[in-house]
Amino acid sequence: MFAAIKALRMAGMSADQISPESFETPQKGREIVAVGLTEFLNLLRDKKLVDYTEVLALATDRVTNTPDGIGLNVRVLLPEDMDLGAAGEIAE
Fold it and tell me: Which among 8, 18, 11 is positioned nearest to 40, based on CA atoms?
């Protein structure tokens, strides 16, 4: 269940964007949406936490929309083999 939720979050999907019929077994899709993703997001919100996907979104927003978001002498290092998935692309 966690792997499915993580994959959906990294793809930028919200519970209302997912059709249970898109899954091999529609029942599994309903369970993932109703029990998994929705409850996971509610838990994060209730505890005032964010997941890795949200951290990437916040960082991307800050770097993109705040000219002085990071200092001129700051370098952001990423491993060459890091898979960013749908979380964003690195501009060269």
Answer: 8
* Pick from 61, 37, 62, 64: nearest CA to 51: 37
Kindly report, residue by residue over 25-84, the tens digit of the pLDDT: 888 778 877 777 888 888 999 999 998 888 888 888 887 888 777 777 878 777 788 776
**Can you state the percent helix, strand and coil of the chain, rounding each to 5?**
60, 0, 40
Query: What's the pTM?
Result: 0.60
For residue 35, what are its two tokens? 């029990």
Q: Are 88 and 12 in contact (CB under 8 A)?
A: no
Burial (CB count within 10 angstroms: exposed 0-12, middle 13-18, buried 19+), residue 32 = buried
Q: What is the identity of the amino acid at 31?
A: E
Neighbours of 72 (CB within 10 A): 5
